[in-house]
Amino acid sequence: MKLSDLITPVALIDVKRMQQNIDRMQSQTNRLGVAFRPHVKTSKCVEVTQAQVQAGARGITVSTLKEAEQFFDAGVHDILYAVGIAGNKLPQAAALLSKGCDLKILTDSVPSAQAIVDFANAKGLVFKVLIEIDTDDHRSGIKPDAASLLNVAKVLADGGMAIHGVMTHAGSSYDLNTPESLANMAEQERSGCVHAAERLRAAGFACPVVSVGSTPTALAARSLDGVTEVRAGVYVFFDLVMHNVGVCDIEDIALSVLTTVIGHQEEKGWAIVDAGWMAMSRDRGTQKQTTDYGYGQVCDESGNALKGYVISGANQEHGIISRAGEPDLDIVKRFPVGTQLRVLPNHACATGAQFPEYQALAATGAVTTWSRFYGW
Amino acid sequence: MKLSDLITPVALIDVKRMQQNIDRMQSQTNRLGVAFRPHVKTSKCVEVTQAQVQAGARGITVSTLKEAEQFFDAGVHDILYAVGIAGNKLPQAAALLSKGCDLKILTDSVPSAQAIVDFANAKGLVFKVLIEIDTDDHRSGIKPDAASLLNVAKVLADGGMAIHGVMTHAGSSYDLNTPESLANMAEQERSGCVHAAERLRAAGFACPVVSVGSTPTALAARSLDGVTEVRAGVYVFFDLVMHNVGVCDIEDIALSVLTTVIGHQEEKGWAIVDAGWMAMSRDRGTQKQTTDYGYGQVCDESGNALKGYVISGANQEHGIISRAGEPDLDIVKRFPVGTQLRVLPNHACATGAQFPEYQALAATGAVTTWSRFYGW
Fold first, then answer.
1. One domain, residues B289 and B213
2. DSSP bridge partners of A275
3. Do B262 and A336 touch (CB under 8 A)?
4. Which domain holds residue A361?
5. Which chain A residue shows the shortest CA-CA distance from B92?
6. Rounded to an integer, what distance in angstroms lies between the CA atom of residue A262 and that of residue B115?
7. Structural domain includes residue A1
8. Do residue A232 and residue A260 come from a single domain?
9. Is B337 in Cβ contact with A115 (below 8 Å)?
10. Is the Zinc keyword given for this protein (chains A, B) (predicted)?
């Protein structure tokens, strides 16, 4: 199959770029002397995850139990479900354990820990549980110094659960854009999580795992003393948000949407394409960053970025391509009806999720279909 | 099955509200004396579409040829593909014709019309083609007075295609929010499209169909003289954007996301739920409207809106619920871990698209799974 055979819109993976991204992150975590556990929520694709495992990943991170089920069925056993578990999902988690999955679950409160204990005790199970630590004030987790850390550990230990360790995610690193601020955030993430682990150990609890990570902090970290594993997800494809954060070049972005020009509004300098928000997603992650790429950076059919051309507006199945600043009044000649273009996404996790499958484009030009899943 | 049996997040349809929305739109178009052709891109669900057809819809509108294929297989024959067709999709359209589908396609330029003619002539086919008219300057289409309207018609007629009519969509009605401005936009949409039809007829071309519509203009129209059919999509569920536009009450919104509280940040007044942007979508359509609902309006488990509580932040599988204005420092007691809530979406088309299935909640409390599809 060739690119020109594809019916647009298509989620295209540049396999060479993807492999370079995988190798870069694996080298970084090897250099820092920690295990790497990729977050597969970005791709939800077996072939992509296999490439990460082959490069040296030890286990995976998931954002849904459906991901855990799908990747366990595909042969991955060591799985961390990195979202505080809701009580209604405990039977699903138990079913994975009973099939032999080495699943770890997460909590950050006494009521949630108690729900885990009550369910597990009623079923005669032991869950491996990590305690979520809040090192950057952006979402869930217990502050490293908070009293509730030991309360949660006590509920788990008294209830017979295996305290597997502590986990944090400095997602606010996405708001930064200098090497120094990223390195500082990586250190804040590391030191906070290690401190929480030390408090648990000092109080007599086991805490074998200290798990940290986000794509920006994983790449910016200068030392990870006390950390046992790093997690990162979007690095596998990268995207325009990550480019604005400063951790990848435009030429590293491995996911794009192949689209076709279907019309124009010549006097406005618009080309209309068949990639609207259903294909690109509604993610406008670059809106508040240094460079706003609209709904995506336009590239030619070969993937070379066409500076200044973005999808500036999107309806469900229509994208409007225009040039930033002065309208391009030669747009009809530049991008005639039928022209194929690639568009780099703001956020690879969100754009990938719009597609039932990727088309994997090898350096040879060959195209292979890789399926992906969605839902819960 | 009951609500409490469901593993969250879940896309929930309130079937009674949906049926009321369907009946309202069908009554409105009946009253105006035009056929109604619902846009099924909103639901991509056979059961929802069947309810629209049973209420009196004549044919359907689709945004992708996959929708055409799926609904043709489900028994719908009269289908309008309402996006200017890319050349690479013509074989797919031809395959539908050959199976007996009464498919209509769309163009708005000479090159696109020529591509249709060239393909059809090579295959010995005749497509029914509508010409897209731009009545509100927001996206695709030919201006009602533009010379190219007759040029496109000539290419189609000379090439042996069946000119089926003209079609317009005043999508900029989404930017309005008063009855008068909506009625004016409906009249602008009507008069522009009818004028284009009259120009075609005066030049000797057939133009049996004059198709207009968007949910706001369809509901606001006072007369549709010269129009033969109306299209609308999101009315079937409605959403917060449509509420801000002023065409539905909060209590009319038939789609919500059922979610579970998984944690808190008590001192910030946050409850964390398992509906992040993967469930709600990244659509922030109310951001620039009168009332910004964040990623959605929070309701109790029974669907009663909890004024002031919205999903104010969202990561992939985490939503942050907070109260607008002053933080709710009683949030832990108000929404304990395990609490189920419903969240009304900004944009039903985008939120629905995140789910492989809906759970249809009948007035009796019974829950039935309705599958939906995605992709192209």
1. no
2. none
3. no
4. 248-371
5. A7
6. 11
7. no
8. no
9. yes
10. yes
